[in-house]
Design a protein that fits this description.
The chain is mainly alpha-helical. Helices cover 84% and strands 0% of the residues. Helix 5 (131-141) packs parallel to helix 8 (193-215), helix 6 (145-160) packs antiparallel against helix 7 (164-188) and helix 9 packs across helix 12 (351-364).
């Protein structure tokens, strides 16, 4: 990795394997922060009420993560493109400005959650039975907001340089600490939900410290420097525009959780909300490796797009698409064949919850095999700096399709809770169809324009 141009010279397949595998592992391990909490809490309280309370917290946690994605996932591809153009100073300015924004965002989010936390939980589907454990978790979690912002937002800049193994290690360090501390605080010290929150905050704090140590050291190509920390609109606005798509994807997960939880509480009670906690966790587990694959392809695509190498951009996308489709089909087959096995990871003491969640899993993940296409196309738009289309696609699936369907479909089915779960595959089908049509046209045009610029530059030389 000593050669800064390795993203433009090494074989695409070799690069993709080198960058994607650590990113996939990092994404899977990253999910363990919340997944391990839910597994332990599900067994700590067999009634499922504590697990449901933790599930009600997830919209808030996803919203916090979304703001980190707005800065990090917008700034990191932008920095890669600038490195491809050999504009090193502007790439480092991007890093410094994004770091400052993450700190400011942390302060605002912490204050807002401290004031409005309980009201948010009640609005997000908490009942009188579950608001207690939900508030216990949230009040401790918000103390680590700054760690979450730095750990998620700044790690994107490590991966964007091609240092995906370092990025993976950043996540592994925190996850291992979390896995070790969870049983100690939850069971040994009998802190329950509070113990899960304490373990998560401590783990994220260590991850954040490790990331800042690396980005201030000698091995990184992009370094946090004091002279670049002052916010500059010219630097930040393109990052925010590009980060809007990942932000919408993540933030709308929070809104979706509210829509799902409130609708399911109305039609199916705490059992339906508890099942949704399990299913949404499993969906995250299925989707995060896809995100890891796109993170592996992003530095290759962005760098070569900035360098004007259309052939390598095309090769990167084709490899990403093929890999994402193979993965999503494989996971879909497993979830359809063994739904109860996955559900029992989270609760083994409530037969009613296990049976209901297993049946709804087949509905909720019915078209999961299509998501490989959706993610590969949408994230490639982000990688080549197409903010407008990536933003539209992020809004299309969740805001324009899924949220309305959650409220529309129950009017056409006797089992209204079933209809709420059915909204997910219905939205998937419509969104993927639209994405494929847009991508086929706009990606071809982007490659044609890039080839034209390269030819013009050659003639000028």
């Amino acid at each position: 990795m000593e050669n800064r141009n390795f993203l433009g010279t090494e074989p695409v397949g070799k690069l993709f394997r080198k960058l994607a595998m650590p990113a996939v592992v990092a994404q899977i391990i990253n999910l363990l922060y919340n997944m391990v909490d839910r597994i332990y809490i599900g067994h700590y309280d067999p009634t499922g009420l504590a697990l449901t309370g933790l599930g009600v917290c997830m919209p808030v946690i996803m919203a916090v993560s979304a703001f980190a994605g707005l800065i990090g996932m917008g700034g990191a591809p932008r920095a890669s493109i600038l490195m491809g153009k050999r504009e090193q100073e502007n790439a480092e300015k991007t890093l410094g400005n994004c770091f400052t924004m993450l700190l400011l965002m942390s302060a605002v989010l912490t204050a807002a959650l401290a004031v409005f936390g309980e009201n948010l939980l009640l609005a997000f589907g908490a009942s009188e039975n579950t608001v207690g454990p939900a508030l216990q978790y949230l009040n401790i979690y918000l103390l680590g907001t700054v760690f979450v912002q730095i750990a998620l937002g700044m790690n994107a800049f490590i991966s964007a340089q091609g240092f995906t193994k370092i990025g993976m290690l950043s996540v592994v360090i925190g996850a291992v600490i979390n896995i070790i501390l969870d049983p100690i605080f939850i069971f040994l010290l009998d802190l329950g939900v509070r113990g899960a929150a304490i373990a998560t905050v401590l783990a994220q704090g260590v991850s954040a410290a490790w990331i800042l140590f690396f980005l201030s050291g000698k091995k990184t190509q992009l370094r946090i420097q004091k002279r670049y920390l002052r916010p500059c609109a010219k630097i930040l606005l393109p990052c925010l525009a590009l980060g809007a798509s990942p932000f919408i994807m993540q933030f709308t997960e929070s809104i979706l959780s509210v829509c799902f939880n409130t609708s399911l509480l109305k039609y199916g009670g705490d059992i339906a909300v508890g099942s949704m906690t399990v299913l949404s966790t499993l969906m995250q587990f299925c989707m995060l490796p896809l995100s890891g694959l796109t993170q592996g392809a992003q530095p290759i695509t962005s760098f070569n797009y900035g360098a004007g190498n259309a052939d390598r951009v095309r090769a990167s996308f084709r490899l990403l698409l093929r890999t994402c489709v193979i993965y999503s089909v494989t996971v879909w087959v497993l979830t359809m064949a063994f739904p109860e096995v996955f559900v029992r990871l989270f609760n083994s003491g409530n037969p009613q919850l296990i049976d209901y969640a297993a049946r709804m899993l087949r509905i909720y993940c019915g078209l999961l095999f299509l998501m490989g296409i959706q993610i590969a196309c949408q994230q490639t738009f982000v990688a080549i700096g197409n903010a407008k289309t990536s933003f539209f696609l992020a809004c299309l699936r969740k805001i324009l399709l899924l949220i309305p369907l959650i409220y529309i479909l129950p009017h056409f089915f006797a089992d209204k809770a079933f209809a709420v779960f059915l909204a997910e595959p219905a939205a998937d089908l419509l969104a993927v169809s639209a994405t494929v049509c847009l991508f086929a046209k706009q990606f071809r045009q982007a490659m044609s324009d890039m080839q034209g610029k390269s030819d013009s530059q050659e003639v000028t030389k």
